[in-house]
């Protein structure tokens, strides 16, 4: 079968789960536009381990890995089935590439996974499992790990990499208002990154912290951007890409999403479904 596209989505604050803004409708439309997957492999920056681990639960559990938010958030569940066979297949692909991967029967879905999935597949009717991130490893490692996962996209698995296109929580906490104007430096960072992404300038993208304007301000730590490189590496044709601009929240969290691969839906198709 032809490969499914791979996705990078920004999940922003946990409040996205109850306040969809522009991002929720976009994700729902994106889920409708993508060929229906058999299973989902999701990567979130909120589960980081020294070596790759893949959740093997038969029934997923919803992890509320945050504090200080409204009570309603802690009552939300995403009751999808797990995908233990997919977990084993993922581990085997990574081991074949020389990575010490293993399954994990304790982790479920953290908010970086279940919050965007609530919009992509609101009925929770697609089996899903989560792959941990190695946040201490750089963009090139993530891209190469994605390349090892590429066979999954040809087997009906949708790879969803979740993070945030920019992620400066210091600035969010300094003035926590959803209506806060977007910080001017973000447009320079986004323009640089999207132009080099469209050109598939991997050397520049791997070295973005030294080359992109305001990179360390946009990402004081880069774990929320690293999943993008996994989606990029896993795509059958990463040069074929669609950028979905849904602006920012709290003035510092860009909520952009990307679809990579020959089957990536067009902006027009997704926009029509979002109406």
From TrEMBL:
Q: InterPro entries given for it?
A: Extradiol_dOase_DODA, Xdiol_dOase_suB
Q: Which domain of life is it from?
A: Bacteria
* Keyword check for Metal-binding: yes
Residues annotated as domain Extradiol ring-cleavage dioxygenase class III enzyme subunit B: 27-238
Leader sequence segment: none
Cofactor requirements of the protein: Zn(2+)
- Any Pfam family hit: LigB
What is its EC class? oxidoreductase
| The protein's Enzyme Commission number | 1.13.-.-
GO MF annotation list:
ferrous iron binding; oxidoreductase activity, acting on single donors with incorporation of molecular oxygen, incorporation of two atoms of oxygen; zinc ion binding
Similarity comment text for this entry: Belongs to the DODA-type extradiol aromatic ring-opening dioxygenase family.
Please identify the protein, giving its name as recorded.
Aromatic ring-opening dioxygenase LigB
Tell me which species this is from: Pandoraea pnomenusa
